[in-house]
Structures are given as structure tokens and as C-alpha cells.
Task: structure prediction
Amino acid sequence: MLTDSIARNCHETQTRAEELMIVGRWLVSECKGAQTAIPRLTKRLYQLDKAGFQPLLAVLNDVGQAGGGLSPRQRDALEEISRGMKL
Result:
């Protein structure tokens, strides 16, 4: 599911999506968890390319929906990030 969402939303091949997942796992590991990795990633995307956050948001929404929907806390966090990115 995650690989398919990354490939579709980022317009990448399945192989490239798998490579992006490896980099994502590394980033989460280096940041000692997703709670610190996501803000770090979004800040960096904002600095590099403000439009780069759109595919990430779409992937996070896909994954949340596949897991039965986003929790209110997850939804609030994504909305806060979107507002911060002025999306």
C-alpha cells in the first residue's frame, strides 16, 4: 500500500518508491522516531520546494485511510503542517 501510494503520488516507479521508503526509514531512525522526523522533513521540503509537500500529504492521507482513517490528532497535525506550508 505505502509503496503504491508513493509511486502514484510522486510519479515514480515501484523500484524508486521502494528506495524512497528505505530513505524514509533511515530518516525516522536518525531522528529517533516519526514524531521528530515528520517536522524535520516538512521543514526541509518547504526550504527546497514548497510544492514538494503535496505528494507527502497525499501519501500520508492514503496510508491513514488504509488504516481505517486518520485519528483526530493526526488530522490536526496534518492541517497544522498544511497551514504552516501555506497550502
Remarks:
- Helices lie at 2-10, 14-30, 34-48, 53-66, 72-85.
